[in-house]
């Protein structure tokens, strides 16, 4: 085992896959050279694998998606990095109209084994254009997979699994977690399923479901509530699309009280779909209305620290919501 940050784990996973398979290439804005991208996620890859396998692109997100599609079709495993998930929006047509539908429209003759890396989320003073959660834009598009790890172990194992997938994967990486989390990560080759949610804390009183930064809040709150005898189950969604319905529904049935947390706006978030699934599959197992805790329904979080804090779901809010649900 080696201690790694969430960011280092992603870098290591990509490096291992580029070593294992010469068809793995990575590109994006400032990805090549010595910089290794705006956050340093690809640092050292150009020096090790050369600038034909780790290279820069112009500031043109539609082109990044188009290059990935082309490389995927001729046998490469392409990794396209978008500096910020917000900037994926100019590439929506390429991703939804071409990437997602390639296997279907060619009866399986052509595939696009692509990973689009998308740093997302707030808490780093990014403000407008640098803090959004865009995963709901791509949600509900058959042909795509959307995943996000919430700890360093999963970060390495899931990026490796995503690269090996024959289906296109959008790999969301929470920016606040990049250097916040550090944990033991195996040095050997391993992958983590990109199809499954994970119960990260067993409990019997309430079920909390989330992903990304808010999941860390839920884990801390669960430990705090345990001192008062409240036993919370915490579930990491991990596979945002398709959702692992079985694990989510079973966790809801287990306690009968469900809190869904997201950093995104409340209206139209991924959690809205999870609430619908639990209502369909487990309504008569519930002992309380499904609760949601989310960001406000405003266009974006502000750059000013006070406005950023006003937008983001924080630890105190999560603790309070979990306690209220337990007492319902």
Chain-wise SSE layout:
Blueprint: E1 2-5, H1 6-20, E2 24-28, H2 45-49, E3 54-56, H3 61-73, E4 77-81, H4 92-99, H5 102-105, E5 114-120, H6 135-138, E6 145-147, H7 152-164, E7 169-174, E8 182-185, E9 198-201, E10 206-210, H8 213-226, E11 232-236, E12 239-241, H9 245-255, E13 258-265, H10 270-282, E14 291-295, H11 305-311, H12 315-327
Parallel strand pairs: 2-3, 2-4, 4-5, 5-7, 6-7, 10-11, 10-13, 13-14
Antiparallel strand pairs: 1-8, 6-12, 9-11
Helix pairs in contact: 1-7, 3-4, 8-12, 9-10
Q: What is the overall pLDDT average?
A: 96
Main pleated-sheet profile: 7 strands, mixed
CATH class of the largest domain: Alpha Beta
Order of strands, widest sheet: 3-2-4-5-7-6-12
CATH homology superfamily of the largest domain? Thiamin diphosphate (ThDP)-binding fold, Pyr/PP domains
CATH fold annotation of the largest domain:
Rossmann fold
Could you tell me the radius of gyration in angstroms?
Answer: 19 Å
**Which shape, going by the Cα principal axes?**
globular
Q: What's the β-strand tally?
A: 14
Q: Which residue ranges are poorly predicted, with pLDDT under 50 across at least 5 consecutive positions? A: none
Q: What is the total number of structural domains?
A: 2
Structure, described:
The chain has about 325 residues and is an alpha/beta fold. It folds into 2 domains: about 1-185, Thiamin diphosphate (ThDP)-binding fold, Pyr/PP domains (Rossmann fold); about 200-325, 3-Layer(aba) Sandwich (Rossmann fold), CATH 3.40.50. Helix content is about 35%, strand content about 20%. It is built from 12 helices and 14 strands. The strands form 3 sheets. It has a 7-stranded mixed beta sheet with strand order 3-2-4-5-7-6-12, with helices on both faces. Strand 6, helix 7 (about 150-165) and strand 7 form a beta-alpha-beta unit. Helix 1 runs parallel beside helix 7, helix 8 (about 215-225) packs across helix 12 (about 315-325) and helix 9 (about 245-255) crosses helix 10. It starts with a strand and ends with a helix. GO terms for molecular function: branched-chain 2-oxo acid dehydrogenase activity. Its EC number is 1.2.4.4. This is 2-oxoisovalerate dehydrogenase subunit beta.
């Amino acid at each position: 085992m080696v201690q790694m940050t969430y960011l280092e784990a992603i870098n290591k996973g990509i490096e291992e896959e580029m070593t294992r398979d010469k068809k793995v290439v990575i590109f994006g804005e400032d990805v090549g050279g010595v910089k290794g991208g705006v956050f340093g996620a690809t640092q050292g890859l150009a020096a090790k694998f050369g600038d034909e396998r780790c290279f820069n692109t112009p500031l043109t997100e539609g082109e990044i998606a188009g290059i990935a599609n082309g490389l995927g079709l001729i046998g490469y495993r392409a990794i396209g990095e978008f500096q910020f998930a917000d900037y994926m929006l100019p590439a929506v047509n390429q991703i939804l109209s071409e990437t997602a539908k390639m296997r279907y429209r060619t009866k399986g003759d052509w595939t696009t084994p692509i990973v689009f890396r998308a740093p997302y989320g707030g808490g780093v003073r990014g403000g407008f254009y640098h803090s959004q959660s865009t995963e709901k834009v791509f949600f509900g598009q058959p042909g795509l997979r959307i995943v996000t790890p919430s700890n360093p172990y999963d970060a390495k194992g899931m990026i490796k699994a995503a690269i090996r997938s024959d289906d296109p994967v959008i790999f969301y990486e929470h920016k606040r977690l990049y250097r916040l989390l550090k944990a033991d990560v195996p040095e050997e080759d391993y992958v983590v399923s990109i199809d499954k949610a994970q119960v990260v804390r067993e409990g019997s009183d309430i079920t909390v479901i989330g992903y990304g930064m808010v999941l860390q809040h839920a884990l801390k709150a669960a430990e705090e509530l345990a001192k008062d005898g409240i036993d919370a189950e915490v579930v990491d969604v991990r596979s945002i699309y398709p959702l692992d319905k079985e694990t989510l529904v079973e966790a809801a049935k287990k306690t009968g009280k469900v809190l869904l947390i997201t950093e995104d706006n409340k209206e139209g978030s991924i959690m809205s779909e999870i609430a619908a699934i639990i209502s369909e599959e487990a309504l008569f197992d519930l002992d309380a209305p499904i609760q949601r805790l989310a960001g406000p329904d405003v266009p974006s979080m502000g750059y000013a620290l006070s406005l950023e804090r006003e937008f983001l779901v924080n630890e105190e809010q999560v603790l309070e919501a979990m306690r209220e649900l337990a007492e319902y």
